[in-house]
Each structure stands twice: as structure tokens, then as C-alpha cells.
């Protein structure tokens, strides 16, 4: 990992709290104001192109926002982003790579000395 262990775990704890608050507030707002939150999510979908697919209606994906699966997915992505960061003079991230032979390994497997 690129960050020192104690600092990485503190940042992970901070990200966990951020994501938990984000999901909790989103769930409350989705319960209290479903039309407004759906409208906001649809406007975000228009910007990303997600709402432009005629076979993928908002009824399929809006209810998944702020769910338990959403929480774990966002948390996993945010934690992975922490592990991919490094600081000047620190260790490089141990990113997964694929060898030319097709074998999967990590970049630290190639370190010498």
C-alpha cells in the first residue's frame, strides 16, 4: 500500500463515516421527498448518459441508490482509491497487473533488491 498503515486505517475510518452519512442522509431524503430526489438523480443520469438508454428506465436503477449494496460498492471503491494513492518518498501502490504471459500478479512482485 502507498500510505503508512496507521494513516491508511484512519483514512479508511473517515471514508467509512463519510459514506455512512451520505447513504443515511440519502435514504432519509429518498423516503421523505421521493419525487425530488428521483428528479435530482435523473438529472445526474442525464449528465452521465445513464438516463439516455431507452431500455434502462429509471425505475430499474433509482431504487438501488442508498441501498446496502450501494453502500458496500461505494465504500469498496473509495477504499481502493486510498490504496492507490502514494506520498512523495513513500511506497508505490501495489497495483494488480497482468504479465505478458497472462498471469495475474502485483507490481511489487517485480521489485528487486
From TrEMBL:
GO terms, biological process: hormone biosynthetic process; thyroid hormone catabolic process
GO MF, any single term: thyroxine 5'-deiodinase activity
Gene Ontology CC: one annotated term: basolateral plasma membrane
Protein name (database record): Iodothyronine deiodinase
Keyword Chaperone carried by entry: no
Pfam families, sorted: T4_deiodinase (PF00837)
Subunit structure: Predominantly monomer. Can form homodimers but homodimerization is not essential for enzyme activity.
The family this protein is said to belong to: Belongs to the iodothyronine deiodinase family.
Topological relation to the membrane, as annotated: Single-pass type III membrane protein
Catalytic activity: 3'-iodothyronamine + iodide + A + H(+) = 3',5'-diiodothyronamine + AH2; 3-iodo-L-thyronine + iodide + A + H(+) = 3,3'-diiodo-L-thyronine + AH2; 3,3'-diiodo-L-thyronine sulfate + iodide + A + H(+) = 3,3',5'-triiodo-L-thyronine sulfate + AH2; 3,3'-diiodo-L-thyronine sulfate + iodide + A + H(+) = 3,3',5-triiodo-L-thyronine sulfate + AH2
UniProt subcellular location: Basolateral cell membrane
Main function: Responsible for the deiodination of T4 (3,5,3',5'-tetraiodothyronine).
Alphabetical UniProt keywords: Oxidoreductase, Selenocysteine, Thyroid hormones biosynthesis
Keyword Oxidoreductase included in the entry's annotation: yes
Amino acid at each position: 500500500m502507498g500510505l503508512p498503515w496507521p494513516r491508511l486505517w484512519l483514512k479508511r475510518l473517515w471514508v467509512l463515516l463519510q459514506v455512512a452519512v451520505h447513504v443515511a442522509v440519502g435514504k432519509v431524503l429518498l423516503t421523505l421527498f421521493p419525487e425530488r430526489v428521483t428528479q435530482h438523480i435523473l438529472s445526474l443520469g442525464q449528465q452521465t448518459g445513464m438516463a439516455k438508454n431507452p431500455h434502462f428506465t429509471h425505475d430499474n436503477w433509482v431504487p438501488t441508490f442508498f441501498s446496502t449494496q450501494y453502500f458496500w460498492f461505494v465504500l469498496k471503491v473509495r477504499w481502493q482509491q486510498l490504496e492507490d494513492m502514494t506520498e512523495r518518498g513513500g511506497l508505490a501502490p501495489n497495483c494488480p497487473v497482468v504479465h505478458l504471459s497472462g498471469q495475474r500478479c502485483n507490481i511489487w512482485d517485480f521489485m528487486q533488491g
